[in-house]
């Protein structure tokens, strides 16, 4: 699906559902249905997952601290980023990254 590629290429940018539906050549409602059937999540949830996974990768690799990773993947608020990160991965960014690094060592 071309829209998945568009989201992957531009996950850090604000997304407009109308634009994605246009890329898919579908109405907004048909696009939502098809996207959810294909990915089991809404386009915005998919984008959030891409952002958080990339931020996690950046932090684990040492390429960015929490605040820099948040901004780099498109968050405007580090506190919002931390809340969403904790929801997705089960612990705050610093604790999660430390645990991942211990596992890799």
SS field, number of helical segments: 7
Q: Name the CATH superfamily assignment.
A: Homeodomain-like
* SSE string, helices as H and strands as E: HHHHHHH
CATH topology type:
Arc Repressor Mutant, subunit A
Rg, nearest Å: 15 Å
> What's the CATH architecture name?
Orthogonal Bundle
Question: Could you characterize what this model shows?
Answer:
The chain has 105 residues and is mostly helical. It has a single domain, classed as Orthogonal Bundle (Arc Repressor Mutant, subunit A). It contains seven helices and no strands. α1 (2-9) crosses α2, α2 packs across α3 and α4 (43-61) runs antiparallel to α5 (66-72). The longest helix has 19 residues, at 43-61. The protein is elongated.
């Amino acid at each position: 699906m071309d829209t998945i590629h568009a989201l992957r290429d531009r996950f850090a940018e604000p997304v407009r559902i109308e634009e994605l539906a246009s890329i898919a050549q579908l109405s907004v409602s048909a696009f939502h249905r098809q996207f959810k059937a294909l990915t089991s999540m809404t386009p915005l949830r998919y984008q959030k997952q891409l952002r958080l996974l990339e931020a996690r990768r950046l932090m684990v690799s040492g390429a960015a601290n929490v605040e820099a990773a948040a901004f780099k993947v498109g968050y405007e608020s580090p506190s919002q980023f931390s809340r969403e990160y904790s929801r997705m991965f089960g612990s705050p960014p610093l604790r999660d990254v430390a645990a991942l690094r211990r596992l890799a060592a």
